TrEMBL record, chain A:
This is Phosphatidate cytidylyltransferase. Keywords: Membrane, Nucleotidyltransferase, Transferase, Transmembrane, Transmembrane helix. Signal peptide: none annotated. The chain crosses the membrane at residues 7-30, 50-79, 99-118, 124-142, 154-172, 184-204, 225-243, 249-272. It comes from Paracoccus benzoatiresistens. One of its GO terms (molecular function) is nucleotidyltransferase activity. The keyword Membrane applies. The keyword Oxidoreductase does not apply. Pfam families: CTP_transf_1.
Automatic annotation (TrEMBL), chain B:
This is Lysophospholipid acyltransferase family protein. InterPro entries: Plipid/glycerol_acylTrfase (IPR002123). The keyword Ribonucleoprotein does not apply. Keywords: Acyltransferase, Signal, Transferase. Pathway: Lipid metabolism.
Length: 316, 218
């Protein structure tokens, strides 16, 4: 067994341990304060923990499955996210062909480009090619009502749900000296830090949260939660520096960057939900909402994390 | 053997329906687990409509619920005939004008008397217009009159018309909901037009508007 594999197993077992602890706490809370399921907050907490088990299981299987596993997993996430996003757009009958193209051509092609490692096209396929070609498909239907809104929303959906999400598996393509065969750990590290930051923001917010960060966007986010969550997640990110090609101090800086981006991503996606008048993006992950509700922070952190890492650590 | 094949096909079809639409049932007015004989009446935009209702019913109700569908579509071709009759046990009726008057109602009443629940599309045909809902044909009234003890449950299918709009062959993946409203029955002395207007309004009332969806974002 390679060192990377051993480290990966350590990480998975570590997360399993955290989940066992979380499940125990959730069980105890339910037993003490909500034996008949009367506390919605505790029921939701336990729903979330159960969903985490499934998500961690899916991630662990994908990581152990290697490149193909990771690419397929994130392609499925992108599909589910795109389905949620497109549902809320104005894309209608006239855009049917564009939607077909978005789901069945653009999405597979983008992940295929990750698979073959064609960085030059991967980086511009959706921002340039699709940006220009998709409106042509829509315009041929001859419907001008809401045209700009429709094509702009479709492009946004593809950027967020396909382009940004594809940057997570794209981390596998980076060639970092002294980090051969360990790239999957970099993905694990990114996901752990960003998701832990979400969880810790929630926990700190519940414990000491007073001042609301952006009451009109997201009533549950507080300044204390953000600060506590970002700081504690960054500390954990620093402590896990051995998973990354970074030195501890660099890992700390990177952690701060991705937690800040993740939080901002949550706010941006919240604003879109508000605009569209919905509470959650979907209903498919019990306790969490939809895929985008869970992915929003990773979506915002991944591309910039990818490019910063690529710029400073990659050897072309 | 054929029965097993039909069951597997049913699983495959509902799996694809879920993969494309992630269909979510919203039980607003009736309890899904309460095992009662019902006539589900829904808006009709595509041939896949009844699948979204059927897919979210509890297994026991699934076995007892038969979609009412047009013979002309579901009898053409072996595959459709297999899916219609054997997978979903559809009650196939001749379209208006194709058979003796009242024959279709007679078939539906017969199925009700055998204990089946029905899925019915009272618009009579797929709605391919921009209107939310076409006027109802009389069938629902005649059924309610013939078997007044059966609950009539309105079911709004949200978004499937966007998944598979008029003339489209390939469905696009978008999230769908099936919203089950409160059961209604024919009131004593209620005439046909009043009843049809009332049941149509009950179905339209389930339609999620952009405005009343506004809740506090998490």
């Amino acid at each position: 067994m390679s060192a990377a594999h051993e480290d990966l197993l350590t990480v998975i077992l570590g997360i399993g341990g955290v989940l066992v602890f979380a499940s125990a706490v959730g069980w105890l809370l339910a037993r003490l304060y909500s034996p008949e399921g009367e506390s919605a907050a505790i029921e939701n907490l336990n729903d979330r923990i159960r969903a985490w088990w499934l998500m961690v299981l899916a991630l662990a299987l994908a990581f152990l499955g290697g490149r193909a596993g990771v690419i397929v997993l994130f392609a499925i996430c992108a599909f589910a996210a795109l389905r949620e996003f497109m549902t809320l757009t104005n894309a209608g009958r006239a855009d049917h062909r564009s939607l077909i193209a978005a789901f069945f051509i653009v999405l597979p092609v983008q992940f295929y480009l990750v698979w073959i490692g064609w960085y030059g096209l991967f980086a511009i396929f959706i921002p340039v090619w699709v940006f220009l070609l998709l409106p042509i498909v829509s315009v041929l239907a001859g419907e001008t009502r809401n045209y700009l809104v429709r094509i702009a929303e479709m492009q946004w959906a593809l950027m967020i749900c396909v382009f940004c999400v594809s940057h997570v598996p794209a981390l596998l393509e980076l060639r970092i000296p002294g980090y051969d065969g360990r790239n999957v750990l970099l993905i694990a590290w990114l996901v752990i830090v960003v998701q832990l930051s979400d969880v810790l923001q929630y926990v700190w917010g519940k414990l000491i949260g007073r001042r609301k960060l952006a009451p009109r966007l997201s009533p549950s986010k507080t300044v204390e939660g953000l600060a506590g969550g970002a700081l504690s997640a960054s500390l954990i990110g620093t402590a896990l520096w051995w998973m990354t090609p970074f030195r501890p101090l660099e890992a700390w800086g990177m952690s701060l960057m991705i937690t800040a981006l993740g939080c901002a991503g949550g706010l941006v996606m919240s604003a879109i939900k508000r605009d569209k008048g919905v509470k959650d993006w979907g209903h498919t992950i019990a306790g969490h909402g939809g895929f985008i509700d869970r992915l929003d922070s990773v979506v915002f952190a991944a591309p910039i994390f990818f490019h910063v890492t690529r710029y400073f650590w990659n050897i072309g | 053997m054929r029965k097993g094949l039909a069951r597997i096909c049913g699983r495959i079809i509902t799996f694809f329906a879920r993969a494309v639409t992630a269909v979510q049932p919203v039980w607003q007015g009736v309890d899904p687990d309460q095992n009662r004989q019902r006539i589900y009446f829904a808006n009709h935009a595509s041939h896949g409509d009844f699948i979204l209702i059927w897919a979210v019913l509890p297994p026991r109700a699934q076995r007892e619920t038969r979609p009412v569908a047009g013979t002309d579509y579901w009898q053409s071709g072996r595959l459709r005939r297999f899916i219609g009759s054997e997978v979903f046990d559809a009650l196939l009726i001749a379209r208006k004008g194709d058979g003796p008057p009242g024959a279709a109602i007679g078939q539906m009443v017969g199925a009700l008397d055998e204990g089946a629940s029905l899925i019915l599309f009272p618009e009579g045909t797929r709605n391919q217009t921009d209107a939310a809902l076409l006027p109802f044909r009389g069938g629902l009234y005649h059924l309610a009159w013939a078997r007044p003890q059966v609950d009539l449950v309105p079911v709004w299918i949200e978004n499937l018309n966007r998944v598979l709009p008029k003339g489209a062959v390939i469905p696009v993946p978008l999230m769908c909901k099936t919203i089950f409203g409160e059961a209604l029955r024919l009131a004593p002395d209620e005439d046909k037009d009043t009843f049809l207007a009332r049941s149509r309004a009950a179905l339209l009332a389930l339609r999620p508007g952009r405005d009343d969806k506004a809740e506090v974002a998490a």
